[in-house]
Design brief:
439 residues; alpha+beta; Nucleotidyltransferase, domain 5; five-stranded mixed sheet; 12 helices; 18 strands; globular
């Protein structure tokens, strides 16, 4: 596989997407190929049938390979699902020598300390995201590197998930013949693809409505402040239509996509859709007003749950106000009149988020659909990872050259330079190690 190509793998409840992309000369992401398959072994974002998931991953990967004529080896995968939760935590370290300025290693030490937090059995920390720092009691410091101080503390946003779920995803990828390059939280990936830096600064809530789950990520002052996964998505709306109208799932899904609306006042009483009966039975007639009433009831429930999470973050306080309001993305964001309904319930400005923020200008319309927000974000994440690796490699080469110039005694000192790796890389490695040993 070429060096500058990254592959994002979005393992969703309804679909699995493999997307291949690279950076063009303007620094934008160019999508080379997409593969999409029906996701059969995933329920509410969690793998519950390994064999079927492996097959779906292989199908999506093959389709993407055919479309782009590239071979897929390494993938960056998104992790989501109802087992994800987040918490706020603050921690501090006392520095042995306050004569020296704070450097990256101090921050690394502080972050590693947070990773030692005791979690519930079977849980694992996925991300530790620093919010703001305090140095010797001086608060609201965004970047402490280069400052003097003896005590360094920080507030962290810690995202936690189930070990078994993460390992199952790793297992599926490995068995599908792919190599797990990185793990990212899906709401973070979607946010990178859809939000602009201004929105993240002003304060914004990203709501990603998927098939089985709805993910939320709240940003303020350019930093992620809150994440949550709500175990409802587009599927429950389809279920309700199926039950409410006594039709099969396929028909319910089509009705939702073609005629569905989140706002019942929109349809007149006499608008009727006729659905063919099964095996020679009489066709069913369904009024669009009833259809949108069913959809409305469920969507209101999903939006209200998300709104509770936005309130949990503290959106009512003046300092935490989300000026840029709400951005809706994911397949569920394509529901008619959803934007109006969300604005009505929350009273916040709302827009639909398309993942074209960082894509090349000539991208296909298909790629810029909210459906692919997470996949685009994962590709971007994979490209970032590669750039980091390349930078590290250059650094290593420079160090090696320096070593060759120095005598033996100094050789030892430089060799001891600790390797800087983000925690996600370590988590990926742990999952890999576990899989290697489990076989």
């Amino acid at each position: 596989m070429e060096n500058n190509i990254a592959v994002g793998l979005d393992i969703g409840t309804t679909k699995i997407v493999a997307m291949i992309g690279r950076k063009n000369e303007y620094g934008k992401v160019e999508i080379l190929g997409i593969g999409k398959s029906k996701s059969l072994g995933v329920h509410r974002g969690v793998v519950n049938n390994i064999t079927q998931t492996i097959q779906s991953i292989q199908l999506a990967a093959q389709e993407a390979e055919a479309a782009s004529e590239c071979k897929i080896e390494d993938v960056t995968v998104g992790i989501a699902g109802q087992h994800i939760r987040s918490l706020q935590h603050s921690d501090y370290i006392t520095r042995p020598n306050s004569e020296l300025v704070i450097d990256e290693e101090d921050i690394e030490r502080l972050i590693n300390q947070v990773h030692k937090l005791v979690m519930l059995p079977g849980e694992e920390i996925i991300h530790v995201l620093p919010q703001e720092y305090k140095v010797d009691g001086q608060a609201e410091i965004k970047e402490p590197i280069g400052m003097y101080g003896g005590r360094l503390e920080a507030n962290f946003h810690v995202v936690v998930g189930q070990v078994s779920s993460i390992r199952n995803v790793g297992r599926c990828i490995k068995s599908a013949g792919l190599n797990l390059e990185g793990i990212t939280l899906e709401p973070l990936a979607s946010a990178n693809a859809v939000l602009s830096q201004e929105e993240k600064e002003a304060g914004v809530a990203l709501i990603d409505i998927g098939g089985g789950t709805t993910d939320l990520a709240v940003f303020k002052d350019g930093i992620i402040r809150h994440t949550a996964v709500i175990p409802f998505g587009g599927n429950v709306i389809t279920e309700d239509i199926k039950e409410g109208c006594s039709i099969i799932e396929k028909q319910a899904e089509l009705l939702k996509i073609k005629f569905g609306s989140a706002w019942p006042g929109e349809n007149k009483e006499n608008e009727i859709v006729s659905i063919p009966g099964l095996r020679g039975r009489d066709p069913k007639e369904i009024t669009l007003k009833n259809l949108s009433k069913i959809i409305h009831a469920r969507v209101v429930e999903i939006v209200e749950q998300v709104y509770v999470e936005i309130k949990n973050y503290g959106h009512e306080e003046q300092k935490k106000k989300l000026i840029a309001g709400i951005v809706l993305t994911g397949g569920g964001a394509q529901l008619k009149h959803l934007k109006q309904l969300v604005e009505y319930i929350t009273g916040m400005d709302t827009r639909i988020g398309y993942p074209n923020e960082h894509l090349a200008g000539d991208s296909d319309d298909e790629v810029t659909s909210p459906l692919y927000a997470t996949a685009v974000g994962l590709v971007m994440d994979g490209l970032k990872r590669q750039e980091r690796k390349r930078a590290e490699k250059v650094e290593e080469e420079i160090i090696e050259e320096t070593i060759n110039e120095f005598e033996e005694e100094q050789e030892q000192e430089i060799k001891q330079k600790p390797e800087r790796r983000s925690f996600l890389d370590k988590l990926t490695e742990r999952v890999k190690d576990f899989l290697d040993n489990a076989e």
